[in-house]
Amino acid sequence: MMEHNKPSKSQIIVSSYVNGGRPSSERLGNLVACMQSTGADVVKLIVEVNYITEVAPILQMLTHCQVPLIATAVGSRGLISQLLAPKFGGFLVYGCLKSQNVPGLPSLVSLKQVYQLDHVNPWTQIFGLISNPVSHSKSPILHNYALRHIGYNGIYVPLLVDNLKEFFRTYESMDFTGFSVGIPHKEAAVACCDEVHPLAKSIGAVNTIIRRPTDGKLIGYNTDCEGCITAIEDALRGKIFVLVGAGGAGRALAFGAKERGARVVVFNRKFERAKALAAAVSGEALPYECLDSYCPENGMILANASAIGMEPNTHKTPVPKEALRAYKLVFDAVYTPRITRLLCEAEEVGAIVVSGVEMFIRQALGHS
Q1: One fold for 123-222 and 225-367
Q2: Is position 165 annotated as part of the catalytic site?
Q3: What is the mean pLDDT of residues 322-339?
Q4: 18 Cβ contact partners less than 8 Å away, ≥ 6 residues apart
Q5: Beta strands in the chain (DSSP E)
Q6: In the CATH scheme, what is the homologous superfamily, with its name and number, of domain 225-367?
């Protein structure tokens, strides 16, 4: 628990728990006013939320409350109520022990080492990763360190988003400066941007969004292409590039591989999506069931751009071990865990392996 203003004497905290229904600003405002009228020195508000957009009225209350306010949004979508509380004037921030896992509460270790909330103030700019799921991501560790390293007054937070359009409609303040976009929102993000970079438009997916400071418009980019391909580009030219997954990351990989002279073959559980992507890069789409036995030549390159093998399903792999003998290089965009079952088995049969961590770091360079 971090305390921002130490009281000089004993004080009374009046607390209320709100659950059921969408917590509107008007409803919370009336409740806070009622609690203030009791003569409370500090008001404590605990609100059950189902969506991250329901945290916005809570942050608004922090800004306008006339007495010190402690506000907590309960649930995994409510994490930013704690991480952003110092920016909006929150009185206290809660954290949990590392051994515990409380939805909506950051760990004490992350508060001190990753987010360093003691340095967050009203002028801090907000960045974040929009994804679902998002708790597995290492992005906050990397980006918060980078922001501190360059002396920029910013914080990078995980954003568990269900409805992308509603999220941007709700958080339209200039305080929300930029976003990374992860699974499953990369393709939907294109329609949410006011302007899209030509490369991202041709790929049909956005993984980076910047709010332009001059007019507040959202500008979309795609750094997946460079992040993925530069990790493996030396081996691409003239090779068969077998791609698993036709989502946002898959599209970026396919375009990048084509640009560097590879022959792209796409496998996806939904065959229609595989065909559409293959047509866009003058490649070939094959039914997903054929992936295990596909072997027109040895020395191919395999790239997994699906979520297969990601925590918590670390026992899964898109291609069985025996089939991996046909590949010279195997790349896995999954980076939690760092070494997936796919990469482990590929290494065992003698293939060169490239972890998603490589892509992750190069993406981060592209974001900055």
Answers
A1: yes
A2: no
A3: 90
A4: 27, 28, 31, 45, 46, 47, 48
A5: 2-3, 13-18, 42-48, 69-74, 92-93, 125-131, 154-160, 176-181, 195-196, 208-211, 218-221, 240-244, 263-267, 284-285, 300-304, 327-332, 352-354
A6: NAD(P)-binding Rossmann-like Domain (3.40.50.720)
Amino acid (one-letter) located at 224 = D
Q: What is the pLDDT of residues 42-100, one digit of tens each?
A: 999 999 999 999 999 999 999 888 889 999 998 889 999 999 999 999 999 988 887 67
**Fold that domain 1-105 belongs to in CATH:** TIM Barrel (3.20.20)
Whole-Å CA distances, 235 to 78, 299, 330: 44, 10, 11
DSSP-derived pairing of the beta strands 176-181 and 208-211: antiparallel
Instruction: Please write the tens of the pLDDT for every residue from 334-351.
Output: 888 888 999 999 999 999
Tokens of 60: 């608004």
Q: Which amino acid is at 96?
A: C
Active-site residue identified among 44, 98, 138, 186: 186
Q: What percent of the chain has pLDDT over 90?
A: 61
State in Å, rounded, how far the first CA of the chain is from the last one: 32
pTM (predicted TM-score): 0.70
> In which order are the strands placed within the sheet that holds 327-332?
284-285, 263-267, 240-244, 300-304, 327-332, 352-354
Q: Domain boundaries in the chain?
A: 1-105, 123-222, 225-367
Per DSSP, 113 falls in state: I
Give helix 271-280 / helix 248-259 axis angle, nearest 10°: 30
| In the block, residue with structure tokens 């628990």 | 1
Which residue's structure tokens are 């979309």?
220
Q: Say yes or no: domain 123-222 is CATH 3.40.190.10.
A: no
Q: What is the chain's mean pLDDT, rounded?
A: 88
Nearest to 51, CA basis, from 87, 69, 75 = 75
